[in-house]
Amino acid sequence: MILNIFLGFLCCVMAVIIHECGHLFAMLICKSPPDKIKISLFEIKITNSSRQLNTTRQNIFIIFFGPLVNFICFILFYLLYLCNSEFLLPIAMANLCTGLFNMLPVMSLDGGQLMYVILCRKFSEKSAERIINITAVIILFPLTVLGFMVLLNSKYNFSLLFVCAYLIASLLCKNNRYY
């Protein structure tokens, strides 16, 4: 059981590293290298001061490339899993979950950043941020309830509830500005 939990953790860490490498690769393609990469317990933050100088298309490309790489890895690892490589299924699923989760419309995630860039084309920055925050609350409430239900039914799995609490805290603390 301990090995299984550790394997799941390693698969998730690998999927997150793949995700962030996708962003870095897209930044290099757009000739917009990062200024700083900060790794903390809860996030990997890539700072790019030239982001405001990029075109909207470049920003969308950079933001979406992280989840896109996760989706591509999911397809590749899943196809290899179907060819009798059973140990690759957890890696495939970790990439799928990382890609999907990062597309949630919460400002501190890629989905919120992507939504912000798109909304700023039609609305002011303040209105775009307000729309994303309202959408985030609408999404996070049922997700938090689901996390609580998973906790009660599994007796030990609090990961979804913990992540939702973290995202709600980042929403309330306004640590989720567009970078």
TrEMBL record:
Gene Ontology molecular function terms on file: peptidase activity
Cofactor: Zn(2+)
Record's bilayer topology term: Multi-pass membrane protein
Protein family according to the UniProt entry: Belongs to the peptidase M50B family.
UniProt-listed GO biological process terms: proteolysis
InterPro entries: Peptidase_M50
Domain Peptidase M50 positions: 86-141
Record-annotated membrane-spanning stretches: 6-30, 60-81, 87-109, 130-150, 156-173
Protein name: Site-2 protease family protein
Intracellular or extracellular location(s): Membrane
Entry superkingdom: Bacteria
Keyword field: Hydrolase, Membrane, Metal-binding, Metalloprotease, Protease, Transmembrane, Transmembrane helix, Zinc
